[in-house]
Amino acid sequence: TGISPADSVFCLLFGGSEPLTDARLAALYTDHADYVAQVTASAAAAVDARFLLPVDRDAFVEAAEAAEVP
Fold first, then answer.
1. Rounded to an integer, what distance in angstroms lies between the CA atom of residue 39 and that of residue 63?
2. Phi, psi of 54, deg, nearest 5
3. What angle do CA 46, 20, 25 make, to 5 degrees?
4. Tens-binned pLDDT, residue by residue, of the chain (70 aa)
């Protein structure tokens, strides 16, 4: 996006971030369960590829479950 929060070293080094609009979220996920399912599948694939530890997968899924996404 080219937008990088000043307080984020990660974004400064690896790119920027921009919050998704409600319309974009609705286009990506049919509902909250769909969002959690997609995060779960993505995190599982990252564990299988050895990019993510299982404990981190669990944290991502827990955050997805608590997120106010659709």
1. 10
2. -55, -40
3. 75
4. 455 555 666 666 776 667 889 899 999 999 999 999 999 999 999 999 999 999 999 999 999 999 988 7
Q: Are 38 and 29 in contact (CB under 8 A)?
A: yes
| CA separation, residue 44 to residues 33, 36, 38 (Å) | 16, 12, 10
Q: Which residues of 23-48 are buried (b: 16+ CB within 10 A; e: fewer)?
A: eeeeeebeeeeebbeebbeebeeebe
> 1: which residues sit within 8 A by CB, 6+ positions away?
15, 16, 17, 18
As a whole number of angstroms, the distance between CA 43 and CA 51 comes to 9
Question: Which runs of consecutive H residues, i.e. helices, occur in the chain?
Answer: 9-14, 22-28, 32-48, 54-66
